Amino acid sequence: APPLPLGPGGDTIQPSGGGKKRSIQTKYRLPLLNWQALSSEQVVGTIFSELDDEHVLQELDMDAFEEEFKTKAQSAPVDLGTLKMKVAQKPVSRVTLMEPNRAKNLAITLRKEGMAGSDICVAIESYDQRALSLDFLEQLERFVPTEQELKLLRGHEASGRPQMDLSEEERFLLRFSQIPRLNQRISALTFMGNLPDSVGRLQPQLDAIIAASMSIKSSGKLKKILEVVLAFGNYMNSSRRGAAYGFRLQSLDLLLDTKSTDRRRTLLHFLVSSVRQKLPELSAFHTELHFLDKAALVSIDSVLQDVRALERGMEATRSEFQAENHPVLQRFLSSNAGLLEALTADGRTAQVGFR
């Protein structure tokens, strides 16, 4: 190994044997050995007073030791000749425009997509659906600059300070904020990307409701069963509450709650017995009903709410086309406006049929 260099300023320390030990300046930062050190006075009369660690260092490959044990994420070896100059230099100050956790999450999002920030912004400006995944767009929507961030970004631009003073995420945010109608563009892109799947998910649900409603309305036997239920209900209620002309289907649950005097049978049990004995032709009324199993899994309110959300998205996309007149938007509207109109019409049909 080469001769050991002196520490900064030739500093030395007192060794155990009375001579001076040199302070060693390593090329790399090394981990600390958390031992309990002895002073020169404490080693007197011990085996350590007979040792010469500086001599043995000359026989060891300390360069290899440093390479293997240096702490992670270090820069190139220290140039001892310029060390003092570097210490004296003032560190570069960086401007912080984003909240640290938000900046960290943005960095993770950008890294996952693996595209340059400038390419991402160009893709948004040109409505390039193929360049940006839907998941990424939906995540990116969370990083549309806030009012506070916009204020800081504009202030930085106005100050004339170089962009390199900003972190990589903040430079992206600066470029991102310069996209005209940023919110509207991202909303249009996510809507256009999601529409096919949304229609594909909602159409079968509407079809099930419509088919089940038509099946119920066309079943003569079911109508007769409901007539029997209405007859029993009015028989029980009319003297005190007046006769009813109909009832909500949710009221059928009450047939199970109404018990006989001995509480052994319900009104539903009695109705079934009555139909089997007096109107046996109605016993198989359920064979006339179709698609009820599929329709029972559908929440009509939820489906109609989703359809209305698609209508709002289409209207927003039309507004974006009027503002931008971009061919991508024009092609999308031409290809999909009719598709959504048909879905909306089915939504109205399902709503009427459900009632």
UniProtKB/TrEMBL annotation:
Domain FH2 as annotated: residue spans: 20-355
Pfam families: FH2
Start and end residues of each stretch annotated as Disordered: 1-22
Recorded coiled-coil stretches: none
SMART domains in the record: FH2
GO biological process per UniProt: cell migration; cortical actin cytoskeleton organization; regulation of cell shape
GO molecular function, one term: actin filament binding
PROSITE patterns for this protein: FH2
Any one Gene Ontology cellular component term annotated for this protein: cytosol
Signal peptide: none
Family: Belongs to the formin homology family.
Record-given protein name: (Atlantic silverside) hypothetical protein
Organism in which the protein naturally occurs: Menidia menidia
